[in-house]
Amino acid sequence: MRRRGFFALAAGVLVAAGCDAGGAADPAVRRLFILEPTADGHGWDGIAGRLATVLVQSGLARTAMAVERQGVLGSAPRDAFGAFRGPFAREGRLLVTAMPMVAAAEIANTAAVVNAATPLARLVGDWAVLVVPSGSRLRTFEDFAARLRQNPAGLTVGGRSEGGSDHVLYGMIGKCLGVDTRLLEYAGYLAPDDAAEALQVGRVAALLGSARALRPEITAGRLRPLVVSSGGRIDGIDAPTLMEVDVRLEYSDWCGLLGPKDMSPGDRDAAIALCDRIDAAPRWRSLCAAHGWSRVYLSGDEFRQWLSTETARTRGVLHELGLLKSSDTTCWGSCVRRP
């Protein structure tokens, strides 16, 4: 894609080095574009702009521009970079990715994210919590599990978009409980307010969502947490982990960075080194703490291997939920359920 066409399709915020550039005389990259999908269900709105600010203020980039990239979420890795070629240190481009993009690519029957771009790093994660209204008869996760085993279709659970992280997590929980995943009832909502309203008026019996986002309602006593998806308990949320209730599962809606598919070895190494420096930057760590993001850093070949495994796990759950015809990893053109 020519540069003129690229900017015609996107809006961005430019951050340039000034007097608070951390004193670095030789930034890792002169000019950096951080592309962020604007598609519904992406779930990490605004993180590109925050990354751009951290990069410049920490002296890691001379200028950094956060660019909103419109388009279909599942094909974003294929479409975002166009014909761009490095060198990365002079003008680099990164794409914000997350679990919903992985699921969207599988549902849309496009190339898997891990194959459509160069996996660079997993940065942060957002743990989930299962909540019910404070007056619900479901007092504990054991109550919820017993009802689900008795009648899998009898409980409707709400969350973010269908096929996204909350939906996939619900499928994983059902599978761990020995429930026929195909019978699970799930209602996806693009707006958090719509999901909250559905819970309060009884259209859904429980809600899966970001523990970080739901904590104020939990603290105020309007919602009762039943379980969290993290490996350890979460401060401010009095609920066990899935592991504690014998559901052998840990799961978060993660966010990371991708590079163009055909990066040279030198450009890939430079981009991964930049990600390493982002994770180590005090400003980034302070930002993560302020927003309640858990640092789950993984980079390079380890991230690529993890992403391949996570893609296969996600594909399997989407198949069991009825969103894919097959869990086969090589059935391009025939896997997606058609209306």
Verbal overview:
The protein has 339 residues and is an alpha/beta fold. It folds into two domains: 3-124 and 253-320, 3-Layer(aba) Sandwich (D-Maltodextrin-Binding Protein, domain 2), CATH 3.40.190.150; 126-245, D-Maltodextrin-Binding Protein, domain 2. The protein has helices spanning 3-8, 47-57, 76-79, 99-108, 113-116, 141-150, 165-176, 192-200, 211-219, 265-280, 282-291, 300-320; strands spanning 10-16, 29-37, 61-69, 91-98, 118-133, 156-159, 185-188, 206-210, 223-228, 252-259, 294-299. Strands 1, 2, 3, 4, 5, 6, 7, 8, 9, 10 and 11 form an eleven-stranded mixed β-sheet that branches. The longest helix has 21 residues, at 300-320. The protein starts with a helix and ends in a 19-residue tail after the last helix.
